[in-house]
């Protein structure tokens, strides 16, 4: 059991947690200097972009709690290896909140991630594929699925609420310098949008889509920035050809790459998100995509618990 508090929900929202930005030790890996913002080290459970994305939505809920004196229920969705469900179950338990996870699948399914969530008190409710899609696409649809109650708060898939961008934006101020380029994995692209918000038009962000047919993410980035109250920043590129077959699909080559990279760099990565980013980085460097003197930071978005599903 981890006792470190993730957010100070009762105080000013300041967290004791920050992460280092490290120069990748073994420069022979990529042939150019690469910095890694190690958000995987933020917290043993609520790490990476989960920490960043949950912060402001949770602070708003905590304020509501203080004002009303009632206990909230966090309601959210994800797959059976979802990093977001895992982190949400943890922060809910730590804060004394209830939590409900709507999980794509059926009661015959299980995973170490689901067991962790249940151990934290999260109520797991399975939904079939069409319902899951509707939860993703139709605002407030979750209210048709979850038994109604008071003080229920919805977090969309991946925790990608517009308010999630504010927490991601904060990490820019933790960097030791403003890089030319930040490389990041894109699922919903909320993390990428948060980086754009924090950069305020400077530099560029290169997003590596981890799912197939990801061009629609351009629209999502614009929507999230707008709904979170930021300008329509365009200083990013979305690269859509390193998905390795689709979301959570892994080729033997990618698996080998993750293994070799972790061994040589001593930086753990997994094949669903960060593995695809570092693999893309290697290929992009080979193809001359970056200037040799470009100041490059890769955001390590954590998610290492999910690797348990890939073994
Ligand atoms: C470890 C990890 N990295 C990257 C992402 C992608 O983040 P986003 O959905 O904000 O694009 C996720 C999903 O939230 C994730 O769990």
TrEMBL record:
Residue ranges occupied by any Tryptophan synthase beta chain-like PALP domain in the UniProt entry: 21-302
Residues where N6-(pyridoxal phosphate)lysine is found: 50
Alphabetical list of InterPro entries matching this protein: ACCD_DCysDesulf, TrpB-like_PALP, TrpB-like_PALP_sf
Key words, A-Z: Pyridoxal phosphate
Keyword Nucleotidyltransferase attributed: no
Cofactor dependency: pyridoxal 5'-phosphate
Family indicated by similarity: Belongs to the ACC deaminase/D-cysteine desulfhydrase family.
Name of the protein: 1-aminocyclopropane-1-carboxylate deaminase
Organism of provenance: Solimicrobium silvestre
């Amino acid at each position: 059991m981890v006792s470190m508090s993730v957010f100070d929900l009762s105080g000013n929202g300041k967290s004791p947690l920050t992460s280092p930005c490290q120069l990748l030790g073994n420069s022979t890996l990529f042939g150019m200097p690469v910095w890694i913002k190690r958000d995987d080290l933020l917290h043993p459970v609520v790490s990476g972009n989960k920490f960043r994305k949950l912060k402001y939505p949770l602070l708003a809920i905590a304020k509501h709690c203080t004002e009303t004196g009632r206990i909230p229920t966090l309601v959210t969705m994800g797959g059976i290896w979802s990093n977001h469900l895992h982190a949400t179950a943890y922060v809910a338990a730590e804060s004394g909140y209830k939590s409900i996870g709507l999980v794509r699948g059926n009661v015959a399914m299980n995973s170490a991630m689901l067991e962790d969530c249940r151990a934290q008190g999260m109520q797991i409710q399975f939904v079939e594929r069409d319902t899951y899609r509707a939860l993703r696409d139709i605002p407030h649809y979750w209210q048709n699925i979850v038994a109604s109650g008071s003080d229920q708060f919805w977090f969309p898939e991946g925790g990608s609420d517009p308010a999630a961008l504010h927490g991601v934006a904060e990490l820019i101020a933790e960097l030791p310098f403003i890089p030319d380029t930040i490389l990041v994995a894109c699922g919903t692209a909320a993390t990428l949008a948060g980086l754009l918000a924090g950069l305020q038009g400077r530099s560029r962000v290169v997003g590596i889509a981890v799912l197939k047919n990801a061009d629609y993410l351009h629209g999502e980035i614009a929507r999230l920035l707008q709904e979170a109250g930021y300008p329509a920043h365009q200083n990013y590129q979305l690269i859509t050809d390193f998905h390795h077959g689709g979301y959570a699909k892994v080729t033997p080559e990618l698996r080998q790459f993750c293994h070799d990279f972790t061994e040589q760099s001593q930086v753990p990565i997994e094949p669903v998100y960060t593995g695809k980013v570092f693999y893309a980085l290697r290929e992009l460097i080979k193809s001359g995509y970056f200037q040799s003197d470009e100041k490059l930071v890769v955001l390590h978005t954590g998610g290492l618990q999910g690797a348990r599903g890939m073994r």
